Amino acid sequence: MCRWLAYSGSPIRLEELLLKRDRSLIDQSLHSRLGATTTNGDGFGVGWYDDGDTPRLYRSVHPAWNDRNLRELAAGISSHLFLAHIRASTGTAIQETNAHPFRYGRWLWMHNGLIREFPRLRRELVLAVDESLFPSIEGTTDSETMFYLALTFGLESDPVGAVEKMVGFVEETGRRHGIEHPIQMTIGVADGRSIYAFRYSSEGESRSLYFSTRMDSLKSLYPESEELAGLSDETRVVLSEPLGDLEGAWNEVPESHVGIIQPGDDELRPFTPHL
Amino acid sequence: MCRWLAYSGSPIRLEELLLKRDRSLIDQSLHSRLGATTTNGDGFGVGWYDDGDTPRLYRSVHPAWNDRNLRELAAGISSHLFLAHIRASTGTAIQETNAHPFRYGRWLWMHNGLIREFPRLRRELVLAVDESLFPSIEGTTDSETMFYLALTFGLESDPVGAVEKMVGFVEETGRRHGIEHPIQMTIGVADGRSIYAFRYSSEGESRSLYFSTRMDSLKSLYPESEELAGLSDETRVVLSEPLGDLEGAWNEVPESHVGIIQPGDDELRPFTPHL
Amino acid sequence: MCRWLAYSGSPIRLEELLLKRDRSLIDQSLHSRLGATTTNGDGFGVGWYDDGDTPRLYRSVHPAWNDRNLRELAAGISSHLFLAHIRASTGTAIQETNAHPFRYGRWLWMHNGLIREFPRLRRELVLAVDESLFPSIEGTTDSETMFYLALTFGLESDPVGAVEKMVGFVEETGRRHGIEHPIQMTIGVADGRSIYAFRYSSEGESRSLYFSTRMDSLKSLYPESEELAGLSDETRVVLSEPLGDLEGAWNEVPESHVGIIQPGDDELRPFTPHL
Amino acid sequence: MCRWLAYSGSPIRLEELLLKRDRSLIDQSLHSRLGATTTNGDGFGVGWYDDGDTPRLYRSVHPAWNDRNLRELAAGISSHLFLAHIRASTGTAIQETNAHPFRYGRWLWMHNGLIREFPRLRRELVLAVDESLFPSIEGTTDSETMFYLALTFGLESDPVGAVEKMVGFVEETGRRHGIEHPIQMTIGVADGRSIYAFRYSSEGESRSLYFSTRMDSLKSLYPESEELAGLSDETRVVLSEPLGDLEGAWNEVPESHVGIIQPGDDELRPFTPHL
After folding, report:
1. CA nearest D13: which of D109, D100, D80, D86?
2. In the predicted model, is pLDDT for residue A38 greater than 50?
């Protein structure tokens, strides 16, 4: 399975959460614990926001742990909001256009999980993508198809509602083809201001997903930590598996819920797919 | 523009026509003369038939001239029928799934040219691909879409008729969208037994395409050539630009024609797209 | 750590031992058991002998499990003698010239292990390579340096003696620099006719290495196996970890020994490094 | 032949000089005019200085014109001093460790040209590299060897003197081996503050090299140019072939000279190799 991480808060160098030993996404990918797949070596991607509206992307087909350019960039680039994804392919080709995050305008999208029997459903799902969006599809994954369906269903104006409709549509399509549990997913979406983190699966046994605790609570628990001291109270990380071993640092997102990291109070809401 | 070559005849090592200096496809790609693009460095592919029904493929995103594995394979592999293609992208991503030749069952397909304004037409064209074939589409090029449309229109039972219908359909679709000259193409298709080489464009000014002369005529012209002596009379090469500088070795395929290299007599027929 | 496999015997398609599920080198690389490293995703290589003197090479920086060209080639190529290696880098760059096997003339060389503190020793070791061989060094690994030292010490005329001298030289050089246990290795070497498989480490705790049992014994144990029936009695496999779960199929190479697979009787001899 | 560019001045996005149509290095690489080689598709690299001491590197084996990550980075990264290089290999392997610029500490180095018969001279040249520098050599090119020789001869304290000694040493070594004209080069070197641009060849017919004119002169010539207006008077570009077609914008560096772009007045001095 894939693994991913989304960060929002005080600008930090990407390497802090992507590469540092014993507590980073890529180190984790080499020593998987909770993941269903032994190895996440089928490419990776990073999307980050800087001063412009359009996020930047760096995506590669190499294993993240041995990509020298990633090390250079992650050391040189700081961002207040970024998404990172490490891929373990469930079948589609290893190519940059299939690497997450996917981008459309100011939106980034990444996914862990799968649409079951996607090759059988793909044509029908792709046909439902709005004609004006269709030419922007570059790859062949279920994950990107989900993104363009969500865009079709209004992601840009109502992110949670659009993802609920997308999942409802995929489930209805899958079940019409006799697939019992059509979808398994955690999804990270961002627009440069907020992060939406979804956890859901048709069978009600979704891949894991964690939020970092509020920084102010963490700081009062660990007043001696310099690392925490530098981060704003608004800073949040959401990811597929906890990093490091700081007790009390992580909360699990419950089944069928969506967490929203945003200016002001964060939210945690039930997630209810429907057509 | 891309360039390609198809070979049928006495088994030879691929390197003879792909790599040898001053008279090979890859050497040619470094020193283009007739091509519209200066450089063909956007990946390449080779498909060859051995004793089985399914042709083998080697496709890469590296420039053909600096791919060491290609040198090894082309020195080690002999075949009686192979296709090779060097790509200059007209816009779609550089990835193995966009490299020619494309394969379906025992069929190989490669293309030089383009469908004009393909991003605008893509959805409609892809929708016309038969549902059972759709899941086999792996890339995002106009060339692969043309292949799957031709398969939809019966390539496996009537190759020339199916390509005529495919082109008719693309032209009709393009013109409905206000595109004056929707298609420009030379196409090489093979099934392990025959090679079909098409030259056509909506505007009647198609990319170049050449057939090698009959080997027996060539041999009588050049009785001293050891190289020719070893090749069977049936041996033929068809390609986008002549190789080497042997006078009388090449015949141009006329506009709107298809050449068929097959056991027994070869054929050259008018090519007439229609719906 | 790396893992490798060498095969000698009845010609078989490479895919049988490289790719087939549940009993191949690459499947094993995704589900490591005995290896010291979780993941072998830092490139791979295959070297095989066909009818010529020079072996062919296919080496790639991609993880072996997701390389499509490898699947094509391994399905298309048969050989009576081949070596395959899957890399987990101990620090040097991921590039084709650092992928095993290395080739010199008709010789192939691959290695699992390391020279400890190689960056510190490299200059001195490389200087000891014969001047006429030096220009053939293409990469930067300890493994390739060992190969060229062995060639310098006479690999082509006395393979076991030359490897003993190479190891003796590396140990002497390392100890002079205060390194207690300079070398850890299993090595597979071939010349197209024989395979030499070395197991040694300065500390006497070498990486694992296994030989397949004699085919005639195996066949009498498993008279019902069609797979075994087709293989000649001379057929042997040597590799870093047993494949599959056939009881009695594998013998461990003892510490500080070299096994020789050759026409006629195989040999197993003590391996004694010296200057 | 390779081509390269070095920039110093007002911080600009890398894409301005690397990617913009009709007047950038990469566009130029697709439509070569003065270069000896038709195609520069054997990888590329960019090195840039940001607020730290160590420059950042992005190097790739793909052709620069089709590398999507380069487009993203060049649009996102601004720098006051950067070097870019597009490679056409003269024989050594296409791998990231052979891509320019090379980096050591705060120094960057790139080269267009060659050491003639380098495989024959390599051992002797590499042996002359200081023992403490030797472990930092990662690739196998003549260009990187020249860099480490220059470092050995004192590049960090006397850049021009060290390069003169390096060239003197290479010429002496080459001539001892019977090579008439051992070296052909333009070299760009930077330390984050200054750029040194060398033009030299043993035969006195060096590859071309150009400096941009002083910005204040250019501005007075073209008072209407918005593009020029934004650049500080100190801004300079040095490169292998002029970009764009602004008359009076470029001065050729004379044979056997070195230009120094630095805070305060630039310099142009004779370059005199010696031992």
Report:
1. D80
2. yes
Mean pLDDT per 10-residue segment, chain D (275 residues): 90 87 72 53 91 91 88 92 89 88 98 95 95 94 97 98 98 97 98 97 96 80 75 90 79 96 93 93
Residue B217 has pLDDT above 80, yes or no: no
DSSP letter (8 states) at residue A214: P
- In 10 A of CB C7, how many CB atoms? 27
Angle between helical axes of D118-127 and D159-176 (0-180°, round to 10): 130
Residue C203 CA, distance from chain mean position: 20
- What angle in degrees, to the nearest 10, is found between the helix axes of A159-176 and A142-152? 120
Rounded CA separation C262/C243 (Å): 22
Residue C94 sits at the vertex; the CA angle it makes with C92 and C97, to the nearest 5 degrees, is: 90
C43 φ/ψ sector (left φ>0, alpha ψ -120 to 50, else beta): left
pTM of the predicted structure, to 2 decimals: 0.90
Read off φ and ψ for residue B216, nearest 5 degrees.
-65, -35
The DSSP result for C185-212, as a single string, is: EEEEEE-SS-EEEEEEETTS-PPP-EEE
Q: What angle do CA C201, C207, C210 make, to 5 degrees?
A: 120
Q: Residues of B at the A interface (Cβ-Cβ below 8 Å)? A: 93, 95-97, 119-120, 122-123, 126-127, 131, 134-135, 137-140
Distances (CA, A) of D13 to A51, A79, D16: 13, 17, 6
CA angle C59, C60, C66 (to 5 degrees): 125
Residues constituting chain D: 275
**SS3 of D100, please?**
coil
Q: Could you give the 3-state DSSP secondary structure of residue D3? A: strand
Each residue's pLDDT tens digit, C107-142: 999 999 999 999 999 999 999 999 999 999 999 999
- Hey, are the CB atoms on C66 and A42 less than 8 Å from each other? yes
Q: Which two tokens stand for residue C110?
A: 């691959």
A163: closest CA of chain C, how far (Å): 31
Tell me if ipTM is over 0.85.
yes
Encoding tokens for residue D270?
């004779």
Give the distance, in angstroms, between the CA of residue D86 and the centroid of all CA atoms in the same chain. 10
How many Å apart are CA A88 and CA A44, to the nearest integer?
9
Strand locations in B94-164 (E) = 102-104, 107-115
- With vertex at residue B48, the alpha carbon angle to CA B46 and CA B50, rounded to the nearest 5 degrees, is 155
CA triplet C199, C202, C208: central angle to 5 degrees? 30
Q: How far is CA A152 from CA A135, A144, A146, A149, C131, in A?
A: 13, 12, 10, 5, 66
Q: Is A76 in Cβ contact with D57 (below 8 Å)? A: no
Going by the DSSP 8-state scheme, the letter that residue B213 receives in this structure is: P
Residue D29 CA neighbour count, 13 Å, CB half: 30
pLDDT at B234 over 50: yes
Which position has the token pair 């970009």? D243
Give which of A59, A121, A123 to mutate to test B binding, by max B Cβ within 10 Å.
Answer: A123
Q: How big is the A-B interface in CB pairs under 8 Å? A: 38
Confirm whether B2 is a catalytic residue.
yes
Alpha carbon distance C38, C44 (integer Å):
16
